[in-house]
Amino acid sequence: MANLLEMRNVHTYIGEYHILQGVDFTASAGQVSVLLGRNGAGKTTTLKTIMGLHPAKSGTILFEGKPIEKLSTHKIARSGLGYVPEDQGIFSTLTVEENIRVAMRDQSDATAKRINYVLELFPDLKKFWKKNGGNLSGGQKQMLSMARAFIQDSRLLLIDEPSKGLAPVVIGKVIEAIHELKKQSTIVLVEQNFRMASKVGDTFTLIDDGRTVHTGEMGYLIENEEMKRKYLGIG
Amino acid sequence: MAKALSLHNGVYLIIALALIIFPFVTESRTWTILLTQIFIFAILAMSYDLLLGYTGIVSFGHAMFFGIGAYSTGIFLKSFEPTLLYFILSIACGMVLAAIVSFFVGILTLRLKSHYFAMLTLALSGLFLVAAEKWRTLTYGNDGFTFRAPEIFQDRLVFYLVALGCLLASFVFLKRFVSSPMGRVLISLRENESRTASLGFKTLHYKVIASVAAGVIASLAGSLYAISLRFVNTSVMTMDITLDALLMTIIGGVGTLIGPILGAGVIELAQHYLSGLARENPIFERWIILFGILYILAVIFFPRGIAGGIQSLYLKLRGKKVGVHRSLKKRVVKS
């Protein structure tokens, strides 16, 4: 399967701290690739580095074969990457409708189709169309954030800890949504909740202390108790 | 929502009509002059609200643009015939200059984080102030200069109506601006800049556009201010002007546009009455201290400003009303 995104030996600093110390990662088209690791391992920084929010100091990031590590965030987003941050990044004083509209790049039929698609996928957004983003529940905010990234026709969605702070019943809905979105887009998922990650992920990459330590099929990790214990503290 | 909006527009329309009719039903010259002053500062405060309230930019250099407008009108009318045509040209010239300056200042400074940006705008504003003081052949330095206003403005009523017209036009323009897709991007920027960039927006572009729009409107206020005094000196570029705009916006309600108009009204009226009281009681000679107390109280008890406070009260009352309806509904269902 073709690699949509490829990171080679990426190093990132935040201030004087050397956070990513050699991350290698690939995301294949049509798959859900999961980044796993303990708290502070560098998973969120990896996504932020891909988006140019914490630019890479060295290394290469290729998207559809083209280097993007030197591009600014808005150019990376416009090249086809959608980002759903950990805090969801909802604009709280804008309504659901305005949050969606602000993400629309054009008024084309294709955009209208995508909006209809996400409104069918997340009916709550339709229900609270005129409600302020800040008044939504955690799960609804998560859905709005994913919807917003999707309607931009993102060929690659970077989703950071979508299950964080959500009730189990809502996590179930997020899993369903990711399965649905996977039909239309490639997904890179950062997830702390291994149960969720194992349900949606096709491949995994383990990050520890800012370095890639293992990568492979998700089935392999599910079976490998020692690896889970060593790098995720479970099992 | 649509109903609420039309209610808002209805209220705005009634207030605008009342202000148009006002000078025809009163002969008070003081009130006409005071209200004209309020309209001018309301325009300035609204322009500041576009920066602070809608884009999240704290600028300490907004007086620069007010000063550019004031000086272009003053210099134009002193150098040429004080006709209406030259007055309009002076406003246009001030706006173009303000647009050019705010564009370059924006490009240079808006890349910086908020506090560095604020400090740099303060420094640039200081630079303009010093330039106005030193370029005596043009500005007459600190002493300033007087000039003749167009004949038509000898009648204060006409100038009152012109200032009101400019206020209404600025309000409608800014309202449409912040309600447009561009306005939504500015609000997104205020809330989360990196998130807005992640959605594919070049945030610097949008901040510069807001800065240019705010600069142009502030320049209009400066031109009107110069006409109202028929005098310009370097005081139009001082930090006091920026602080006035900032306080009018905060006291009126940040990010509301109507708030800065209310803030300008409250501050100008308070200044007028408190300084007037000084003639009756010496304690009010230190009215500026009372003013400071008023600011502190306003910030403590109305953190969202007057407009924000009214909005909260309205929502609270509406919430209670909804609550009553809900409880009634429940009772109806039970019975």
Overview of the molecule:
Chain A has 235 residues and is an alpha/beta fold. The model of chain A has no long low-confidence stretch (mean pLDDT 91). In chain A, helix 3 (96-103) runs parallel beside helix 6 (138-150) and helix 6 packs parallel to helix 7. Chain A has ten helices and ten strands. Chain A has helices at residues 43-50, 73-78, 96-103, 109-121, 123-127, 138-150, 168-182, 194-200, 218-223, 225-232; strands at residues 3-14, 17-28, 32-36, 58-63, 66-67, 81-84, 156-160, 186-190, 203-208, 211-217. In chain A, strand 7 (156-160), helix 7 and strand 8 (186-190) form a beta-alpha-beta unit. Chain B has 335 residues and is an all-alpha fold. Chain B has a domain at 14-238. Helices cover 79% and strands 1% of the residues of chain B. Chain B has a two-stranded antiparallel sheet with strand order 1-2. The longest helix of chain B has 30 residues, at 305-334. Chains A and B meet through helix 2 and helix 3 of A and helix 8 and helix 9 of B.
Percent of residues of chain B in helical segments?
Answer: over 70%
Please list the strands of the largest sheet of chain B in the order they lie side by side: 1-2
General shape of chain A: globular
Estimate the global geometry of chain B from the Cα principal axes: globular
What fraction of the residues of chain B are assigned to beta strands by DSSP? under 5%
Order of helices and strands of chain B: HHHHHHEHHHHEHHHH
Question: What's the rounded overall pLDDT mean of chain B?
Answer: 88
- Pick out the low-confidence regions of chain B: 322-335
Number of helices of chain A: 10
The tally of structural domains of chain A comes to 1
CATH class of chain A: Alpha Beta
What is the count of DSSP helices of chain B, taking H or I runs of 4+ residues?
14
The name CATH uses for the topology of chain A is Rossmann fold
Kindly report the oligomeric state of this protein: heterodimer
Give the beta-strand count of chain B: 2
What is the overall pLDDT average of chain A?
91
